[in-house]
Amino acid sequence: MDLYTQWASRQLQGLLPDSSVDFLQQHVLHPDASLQILKGHVIAAGEAAFAVAWPLVAPTFERVMAAIYASPDVVFVATFLLLLVAVVQILNFTRRVLMFLTRLVFYMALWAGLAAVAAIVWKRGLEASVGDAVRIGSTVVGYAAGVRDIFLREYAKYDAQEKARAGATAGAGRRW
After folding, report:
1. Which residue among 13, 52, 136, 169 has its CA within the 20 to 30 Å range from the CA of 69?
2. What residue intervals traverse the membrane (predicted)?
3. Which of 23-32, 60-69, 152-161 has the lowest mean pLDDT?
């Protein structure tokens, strides 16, 4: 067993029952288990790919390292850009979490309101609830009509002022 497998085995003993730990050691962590064989094949394929690719990538890598060593400003700018990207990612994550929580609160408020309306209808009965809804609706419509009247009256005053101002300055343009 390699070091990682021994560490995983010790950690599992503290978390799982003995029968589950024995099962995992026998079928997952044992060197002859199919998962360990697959892991070995993947590691061997990765090492082979690295051995083939390194002679092709090595000259470019060495030139980049030489350029970085010759110009520390590039390292500073790259570090600054990396830090900027990290800050933007953190802020984006924070924004997404806040949007999720806001959406969750509004959904909870919506469903709580619907549950309250259903409880009121259940307690008072359908006929009394419809009567209450009609009374509340007529009150809201009355307030809306009052607001509309105020708006139209103020708009008429504003329109009259603009027309008076336009009439007073009609011929007062520049003369040549």
Report:
1. 52
2. 74-92, 104-122
3. 23-32
